[in-house]
Amino acid sequence: MNPRRKKRLFIIAASISFLGAATGLMLYGLSQNIDLFYTPSEILQGKDLGNGKIGAKPQIGQRLRIGGMVVEGSVVRSEHNLDVSFRLTDTGPEVTVKYTGILPDLFREGQGIVAQGILISADTIEATEVLAKHDEEYMPPELAEKMKGIKHVKPEY
Amino acid sequence: MIPELGNFALYIAFALSILLSIFPAIGVRQNNARLMAMAPNLSIGLFVFTLFSFSCLVYAFLTDDFTVVNVAQNSNSALPNQYKFAASFGSHEGSFLLWLLMQSGWLFAVAIMSKGLPVDMRTRILTVLGWVCVGFYAYIIISSNPFERTLPYFPVDGRDLNPLLQDIGMIIHPPLLYMGYVGLSVSFAFAIAALLSGNLDSTWAKWSRPWTAAAWAFLTLGITVGSWWAYSELGWGGWWFWDPVENASFMPWLVATALLHSLAVSEKRNAFKSWTVFLAIAAFSLSLLGTFLVRSGVIVSVHAFASDPERGIFILILLALVIGGSLLLYSLRAGNIKSFGKFSIFSRESMLWGNNVLLIAATMVVLMGTLLPLVHKEIGLGTISIGEPFFNQMFTYLIVPFALLLGIAPLVRWKQDKLNNFVTKPVVVIISSVVLTLLWLKVEFNDINLLAALGTCLAVWVVLFTLLELKQTSKKVSLFKLPLSHYSMSLGHIGLAFVIAGVALTSQYSVERDVKMNTGDSAELRGYQFTFDKIKNIEGPNYDGWAAVISVTKQDKPVATMLAEKRFYPVQRNTMTEAAIDDGFFRDIYISLGERLPDGAWALRLYVKPYVRWIWLGGIIVAFAGGLTLFDRRYRNKNVAKVTAQ
């Protein structure tokens, strides 16, 4: 092999092994950081996979995202600190969310929100983050789609 | 009347872009000088009409013309004037007109500043930009016309600009970012023009370099301002969220950075040429992909415009045409590109190759993290989200080799160098970096965090090597005679060091605390004493609300009196947190006012964020360094002409 080809081969081999290592690390990183999205009824009854099949329920201890409407009158605050708990619903079943800290500006009863956290019992989530969007008409798109089967559209006037 | 004029001007600009994309190209084909000479004039016309159109839209906003849908939906008579101006590009339609203004502005700049280029090359470049313009102008006219009317039943007042956007950041961030985004189309046009002509020599890289540097500098500044804005406006104390829209601007930046370095090799060493062309295509394609992601509503993001599938499909077609067409051309022509510069395994070239590989890997990580949720959903596996930890982890892995290489590379000779020359220096530098870092962290925080130490150490490594390199160069050339582009490199690297140190320190040493406070209460955080003095009413031009007055002391010495606000905007019925920030070179104190609790107390979030300003300071230095390249003697018009004459 002439030196030029040899050098090329070296560069290509180095690139490929580097990319391989990078891909491996990336997949490993991904496997640790993917959070599935659930609605309250999916947490309690399992995901509806279509044609009558029901998927597995999330396991206790699993990191996940949940989206739902805050049940009217369900927000309970602690007297002493910033602990708060509320219930989320979509089509009936309710899931309790516990959180410590400041809720977003648009957090209200009856409003759609998304929370990220860990399932600590079959129907309770300890949230690390609660999100609500800066728009009165807003419902998280992930949720709107699941609840109504239609995409949420901004109202015309 | 004025909006109709604006609309009309937009149609004329569209017509001009069609002419620009056809006739000069025929001129090149037939070697017809008259047809080729049309290109610069058409480009100037395109810019003038777009500028006029944009001014009409701004006029409609400033005069509260609520008969225009865009104004009625995004402005309000009580909105302060500077925000009315910002509102003109606050909506999807308006922002796209701003985009076009930038696009035609670049076209204009190329037309008037490329007189030194050979006529056919110049014509080809303008033609390619003309093609891009046809796509964009067609898009705005067909699916997103900003001048639509509400007639005959127009509202008495508008729905107001989203309160989050009522900030100085909104006035400067989008124009800067778009300048960068769109500017990449110029590098793209240079690359395509070169492929079309089949003439890819190092002069091509020389022409393309200042334009790429300019676009890149704008993009850098735009992203930096965006980060600072998110920090000061969103009230969570975060400066980067790995939000899909942020990623959409970060990917072209990463590739453009690779392109900038690869262009240097192409210019100086006549190597890497087909790779450089590929990067130019990739950078622009990613900026289009970003546009698609942001405007089609396929992904969930805090930035999302009202989504409309039709718009998405149009951009997708445009994207397919640009990527497909240019890659086809690339595959047909790239085989003919010969890189003559030879180099050994240990040389500046191979160091820059390492830079490129790492930057592309970083782009892949971001691309994957952004698109995977979309793919996952489309193939029916359910909705997922990919958390920040993924990106943070990957970038921690990538930055280590990147910064190590970056330190050494400027000292390594082109073509070939001896590995033996690089044993003592790195060892000395690494020992001094570690010692300096440990001292720094010990004195400043009295606690050594491993990740923070790693980041700081890398930053010190980069700075020490940059200074070492300048010292070594000064032995050969007087520092006063050193070309500006050399300083631009050194400064850019030092800027990056600031960013790395800022990110490492602020992400590891920031502290936050959520507290429940009544007036008179105090709370402590990292040696600072926060006292809730009182709560007062505030009234702004288009909002009212509460402000918490908090005095901050350290060891009984007053540090600041801060006003954390909770604003209510009646038109949109929106509540918004306006954080109080006491900024400093070494630390920020950041307070956001939460909700009022049922018993009358308030929820507050307190932060102390060390070195957070360094991130933006570094970003500004990097952008400035990019701008500095433009003033290098090599790239002045006269010289380009000389090169061409040779």
UniProtKB/TrEMBL annotation, chain B:
Membrane-traversing stretches: 6-28, 40-62, 96-113, 125-142, 178-198, 210-230, 250-266, 278-306, 312-332, 353-375, 395-414, 426-443, 449-470, 491-511, 611-631
Keywords, sorted A to Z: Cell inner membrane, Cell membrane, Cytochrome c-type biogenesis, Lyase, Membrane, Transmembrane, Transmembrane helix
Residues annotated as domain Cytochrome c-type biogenesis protein CcmF C-terminal: 316-633
Subcellular location(s) per record: Cell inner membrane
GO MF, any single term: lyase activity
Record-annotated Cytochrome c assembly protein domain positions: 91-296
Major site of localization recorded for this protein: membrane
Membrane topology, as annotated: Multi-pass membrane protein
Keyword Protein biosynthesis: no
InterPro entries hit by this protein: CcmF_C, Cyt_c_assembly, Cyt_c_biogenesis, Cyt_c_biogenesis_CcmF
PANTHER family, A to Z: CYTOCHROME C ASSEMBLY PROTEIN-RELATED, CYTOCHROME C-TYPE BIOGENESIS PROTEIN CCMF
Family: Belongs to the CcmF/CycK/Ccl1/NrfE/CcsA family.
Function according to Swiss-Prot or TrEMBL: Required for the biogenesis of c-type cytochromes. Possible subunit of a heme lyase.
The name this protein goes by in its record: Heme lyase CcmF/NrfE family subunit
Lineage of source species: Bacteria, Pseudomonadati, Pseudomonadota, Gammaproteobacteria, Alteromonadales
